[in-house]
UniProtKB/TrEMBL annotation:
Its main location: membrane. Residues 153-296 form the EamA domain. PANTHER family: INNER MEMBRANE TRANSPORTER, S-ADENOSYLMETHIONINE_S-ADENOSYLHOMOCYSTEINE TRANSPORTER. Belongs to the EamA transporter family. It comes from Streptomyces maoxianensis. This is DMT family transporter. It holds the Pfam family EamA.
Length: 334
């Protein structure tokens, strides 16, 4: 029991570290969002490069197509994903961004079901309706409050794109791992994904620096952006991944989905603290709809997981939270 409790605490710690990504874009102002993204993932990529250099003998044994695939999903699932998150959080609200991105387990389940046909579609209807209702409420919050703006709508669209990008990453990664006869070493695979994110970041870093306002390079703003990049790139991304992978091996499968969902809850709470406000009634309603949808989905997920464990012939789950790469030996972070 003590070991399981420690693993849960460790998983919550990792989720909290990842959640800081939602407040960082506003915290580093006047630095640009692009500078934060490229700085963060350049450091993350360097961590991956270090691991690949140490594991060069194992890397040479991997087929080129797998190496390229790892770099590809790292670029899309990390770099592109966090660009969407960063601009969304500054255009709209980190709270709204966190909640919309947090609904990704449903899009992951839908995409996984199309790929492998392993989930009863009727079990997804109610969660999808609840989550769509929540997103609509969050999207309409400014209109209901009488303060509509083009920026807030663009922010919502970017948050939805981030959710879809992350879902693509999770499903494609998990699907490829299950279909490969020889599984790659988890550490080497994580390093490849990190290099995919870091490669694009390093190429764009000079442009990000050139397009950043001059006041960013004053002592305090410069110190602030450097510290945030180190925190997100090394502590949040790399060390958070290590904590999660170690903890996930000792966590009961039904608990994994709810623990992953805490990242968005932490992100929403941190965003409200940074913005120094309480959510509007519309935002509360949207948040509750999304949480209800996720909760209902996880109930079905747990039921299907127990059905499989008991050896019954009941409905199987699709690319759900119990089968995503986060729960396996393949580290995945945000």
């Amino acid at each position: 029991m003590g070991s399981s409790r420690n693993n849960v605490i460790a998983a919550l710690t990792a989720a909290l570290l990842w959640a800081f990504a939602f407040i960082a874009p506003a915290a580093v102002k006047p630095a640009s969002e692009l500078l934060l993204v490229t700085g963060r993932y350049s450091l993350f990529g360097l961590c991956g490069l270090y691991v690949l250099c140490r594991g060069w003998s194992e890397l040479k044994l991997m087929p080129i197509r797998r190496i390229l695939f790892g770099l590809h999903i790292g670029f899309v699932g990390y770099f592109v994903f966090y660009i969407c998150v960063s601009y969304s959080a500054t255009m709209d609200s980190g709270f709204i961004t966190a909640m919309i991105v947090g609904s990704s387990p449903i899009t992951i389940a839908i995409a996984g079901n199309f790929a492998e046909k392993r989930l009863a579609w009727r079990e997804l209807v109610a969660p999808v309706i609840l989550i769509l209702s929540g997103i609509i409420l969050l999207s309409a919050s400014d209109f209901i409050q009488g303060e509509p703006s083009d920026g807030s709508m663009i922010g919502v669209v970017l948050a939805i794109l981030a959710m879809l990008t992350w879902s693509y990453f999770v499903v494609r990664n998990a699907q490829s791992q299950r279909t490969w006869a020889t599984k790659p070493d988890p550490t080497i695979w994580a390093a490849l994904v990190a290099m995919g994110a870091g490669g694009g970041s390093m190429l764009l870093l000079p442009f990000a620096i050139a397009s950043t306002p001059d006041e960013t390079f004053d002592p305090y703003p410069l110190f602030k952006i450097i510290m945030w990049c180190i925190f997100l790139g090394v502590i949040g991304s790399w060390w958070g991944t290590y904590i999660w992978v170690k903890a996930a091996k000792g966590i009961p499968v039904p608990l994994v989905g709810p623990l992953l969902a805490t990242e968005s809850i932490f992100g929403a709470i941190l965003s409200l603290l940074v913005e120094q406000r309480i959510p509007t009634w519309t935002e509360i309603g949207g948040c509750l709809c999304i949480l209800a949808g996720l909760g209902l989905y996880m109930v079905f997920d747990v039921k299907n997981s127990r059905s499989r464990d008991s050896g019954g012939s009941g409905r199987g789950s699709g690319a759900s939270s119990t089968e995503r790469p986060e729960t396996s030996d393949v580290p995945v972070v945000t």
